[in-house]
User: What shape does this take?
Amino acid sequence: MKWKYRCSECGKEFPLEPGVYVCDECSAYQKHDEPLRGILECTIEVNPKERKRILQLEEDLPDPVPYDFQPNVQVGYTPMHSPFRLQKKYGFDRLYIKDDTCEPTASYKDRASYLVAGFAIQHGIKEIALASTGNAASSMAGIGAGAGLNVTVFLPKTAPIAKRIQVLQYGAKLIEVDGTYDKAFDECLAYCKEHNVLCRNTAYNPLTIEGKKTAAIEICSLIHPDHVFVPAGDGVILSGLYKGFEELYDFEFIRKMPTLWACQAEGSSALARAYSRLTSDKKAILYDKSNNKFAGAPHEEHPWRKYFDVVPSTTLADSISVDIPRNGYHALKQLNKYNGKTVTVSDSEILEAQKELASLTGVFAEPSSATVLAGFKKASAEIPRSAVVVLLVTGSGLKDIASAAKGLGL
Ligand SMILES: *Cc1c(COP(=O)(O)O)cnc(C)c1O
Assistant: This one.
């Protein structure tokens, strides 16, 4: 079995090793006000014998980091709830919740941190740095502590207090940035280059996408979903899930790709806006599905750049509040390839859904994650009642008490 990286724009291949992050050719054209260019995807070559073994034993799909190097921390295998009061209320008997509030640091980000930590251990790397709006930082700090790695985080001063406290409790080095996430992102890149440190910036490090595929595998070990609701900011969770479902489909564990719904806040909806522009553009340059690259790539200007405008985000759902979705081009490509959907919800709909989810199911979600219930409520008229639906709840409500208090009118 052989792993490598492949550029999601031009198809150029790279070895899966330290120091490789984005495609050198496509990223050379990177502009400051657009999603990341040249995002790399992990790909695997399996020979027919290996393929047969995976199919016959129904063993887990392979990981790019060998099992022996994976940190000794329990990540993933989170509960799937069958919430009967919610099912009854909406008339969907097969509505489920995948509950990632139960991750060790209480967010979905642990799935990515786990793989990045394993990669560091495999290659003898001692320090990992990252920029974050909050959860990625608390996650890497926690998983890093368990794995015995040094972690440095660049966090905007506006991050919710609970997430900053987590970072400090786990013993990571906290560098507070007086400015936006974008500024933190750039400062972190400079730091990693200067100190030769492994960078876990989301989307930029391809393993952050790969690590986020595992929930798809866990879901399909129990049920085969028709619709999955996913919160989306940078669109990395969305891409990770697509990768997971795609591999499950390739290895014939599932017979069809589910419909993914990217749930966004109205005040931070760059992906939804871009997708609607792309699908209504009759002259759009489309991704070449059979060759798995954009025809004519590498392009100096990304053919989809015009679909992304920069509108300063204004939502209280901090984890999905982004001006420029880092993984925008790649996520848009997968939405387009698999006829995905987007749905946007207002902050008051988010707070209402947060309370509804907690009081009807016992799952207390942070605002970003409550978008999946708010989004489902809006979309449910388009979905047959017999469908198998999964709401992916990505983070705990205890991480942002101030927003929850607002929802309660306190
Ligand atoms: C990061 C995060 C998201 C959004 O993920 P993206 O990959 O940025 O789309 C959603 N929910 C929680 C709890 C998060 O921490």
Q: What stands out?
A: The chain has a mean pLDDT of 94.
